[in-house]
């Protein structure tokens, strides 16, 4: 209630103080800074910035303006603690605690690094870091309320110093207590970034530093599901439900120093060559901490080994790349060589009988990189990326990404992709130390996990619709079995996906459905998944308060079919195959009612999540033993300040 009153007070003051800007749209014709007074009177020109003076980019992408248009997808992004559309995932009961991924996808951040699956939803890779170009100092705030107590706030400040240098500072802090015992989430990250371009455009540099922490208390889920499903009013207070773990937490730290610069030795357009050098160091650390032994994990002393209560794993990657770039507007080609020093290790030597497991694996890798971009007639674009490296411990690494975009008919777009990757399995599945005997493993000389991905999508003008299809073939699929040991499949796992999205409009009413059908064509038991995932958003959108504000209000329903889900292992922070008696989740709708409001460049998101649990019992689960969140009032605020 306090959060709601705060939002209403800010909204009322904002309506009185702000007027809508005619340039506040990505759909209007781009224009530069407006000249308000040309200086005829006193030789001093007066400028008024427009939204097109506030831009950002990732290092290898084109610049984009700040998106301040009130589109329907905002309600899926800014109601999530990680500010992403998490379609295909199901959230744990507490924000900041990650998701159960129900739809297969390739996460390249796990390549040659240590990254537990449930910690990955908060992480920003190199390609996710934004570099800004703004005419005036710019600040952005994104706020989310938490579960029980706490909050999540992301703030960004960026400023240009002259025309050629920009710096930015971004911080995100999250703390949420949760409704269940021992369920605290505490996440944060800080980013410093900078972009410089010389006056003659011969030299350009990108740099950033990021440090992220994803920390969670681990309760192992509720110990007796029947108490949750029984309907006893004593357990409506979720703190009364006993949980499996009492003394455990997991911590993941992710740190990267990154610097990339390029120099153009010739000024003539006849010789559009550049020399690029990129160096970065990335360190990942994962800790599983305990203040006492957890009876949930052992029955007799023989189930333990002589190892500290808390364990540590880490990976490091020092990468150095030099490449030559041929850079024209419609044709770009660069190729270079890369050296990497990669390490994977544990904090303390393994205890008997696992003393033959290594303390650290380290190797120097030599490889090559290449990128190709071709644009033809403003209708066809081909983008290909290739990376290869070789090492002793982690074998050959090869990743090829190929994307073609073309417009066969005006306003109809086709994207086709063929991706191939062969790489060591995720480092988190290669090694693990623990005081509990069953959690100790070392996967020696694993085969490369090889993934072929073929797919694409067609975007149609009719109803703003799109249709997509994907096919995956995974050879040597690596997983954690029910005995908590890593295994590799002897035959391929084949997955097909097909789906689509559209927006139907009648006056000010809109219906936006998104559906996905998927199936494991072979080895279905290795990757349990729902056959159908769907989301339906029926909403009303209109201008209000004498055109000063804009309102969205509607109903969202999220649904996935029942399936025997993988289980979550807190020690590994990975999802493992269920045992002989799997527990099925899904088959229950998740209904939300929301009211969203935009005033100038401030957005309010008010959402009654899982509203159907106010008149029916909550029987939904995120994973076996982990109930889905109950009804809660979810608040979000997004505010862009262009000084």
UniProtKB/TrEMBL annotation:
Query: Per its UniProt entry, which superkingdom is the organism in?
Result: Bacteria
Print the keywords alphabetically: Signal
Q: Does the keyword Signal apply?
A: yes
Secretion signal, residue range per the UniProt entry: 1-17
Its lineage opens with: Bacteria, Pseudomonadati, Bacteroidota, Flavobacteriia, Flavobacteriales
Query: How is this protein named in the record?
Result: Porin
This chain's source organism reads: Chryseobacterium koreense CCUG 49689
Q: Which Pfam families has this protein been placed in?
A: Porin_10
